[in-house]
């Protein structure tokens, strides 16, 4: 399998899951600025929308959108228990968390990474993020993980989304449970391996 990625972007989430799954994979860098691969290939020929992640299977089929990719990977290795069984309440809860992170956290970071965003838009995005992270803080006050009190693909996604805050002036220091969560997830060997492969370790 190939994972088209950009260092530290949302593609880090499926990269972590690939490492957790122990599946062989090739990383292919795709520039989010030039939309080209290192060999000059136009990334739009890989994903017409021009963004990462893209998972390319060995037969050439491609899958986009992080929440779908991480569940696909996890289902390949059920013994790793990265997601609960399909059709269970527990699986639906993981999907709920993935959707929340994607729409309420990930999406609200967008304006903060966009230079053309007005200060009014940025302020509104930050306010929403603080509110949504407060919800996450409440979850983590009860359990070590955000679904079923067991590590899952949703935790990998949350770890990545929370890591963006320091780059855009979103202060999360008051969220002590989230800080402990990020440290805990960041120390996992698979996470360390993904960070190292993307050149994100100091």
UniProtKB/TrEMBL annotation:
What is its EC class? transferase
User: Which is one GO molecular function term here?
Assistant: glutathione transferase activity
Ranges for domain GST C-terminal: 87-202
Its Enzyme Commission number(s) read 2.5.1.18
Domain GST N-terminal: where?
Answer: 1-81
Q: Does the keyword Isomerase apply?
A: no
Keyword field = Transferase
- Name the CDD domains for this protein: GST_C_Beta, GST_N_Beta
Q: Which family does the similarity line name?
A: Belongs to the GST superfamily.
Name this protein carries in UniProt: Glutathione transferase GstA
Native source organism of the sequence? Lampropedia aestuarii
> Which gene holds the coding sequence for this protein?
gstA
């Amino acid at each position: 399998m190939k994972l088209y990625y950009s260092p530290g972007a949302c593609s880090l989430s499926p990269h972590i899951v690939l490492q957790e799954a122990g599946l062989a994979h090739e990383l292919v860098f795709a520039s989010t600025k030039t939309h080209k691969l290192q060999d000059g290939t136009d990334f739009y020929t890989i994903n017409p929308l021009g963004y990462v992640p893209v998972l390319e299977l060995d037969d050439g089929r491609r899958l986009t959108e992080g929440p779908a990719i991480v569940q696909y990977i996890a289902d390949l290795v059920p013994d790793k228990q990265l997601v609960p069984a399909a059709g269970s309440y527990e699986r639906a809860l993981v999907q709920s968390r993935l959707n929340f992170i994607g729409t309420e956290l990930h999406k609200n970071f967008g304006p903060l990474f966009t230079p053309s965003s007005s200060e009014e838009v940025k302020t509104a995005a930050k306010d929403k993020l603080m509110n949504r992270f407060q919800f996450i803080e409440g979850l983590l006050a009860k359990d070590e993980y955000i679904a079923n009190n067991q590590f899952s693909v949703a935790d990998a996604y949350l770890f990545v989304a929370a890591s963006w805050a320091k780059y855009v002036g979103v202060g999360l220091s008051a969220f002590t449970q989230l800080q402990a969560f990020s440290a805990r997830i960041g120390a996992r060997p698979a996470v360390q391996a993904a960070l190292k492969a993307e050149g994100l370790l100091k």
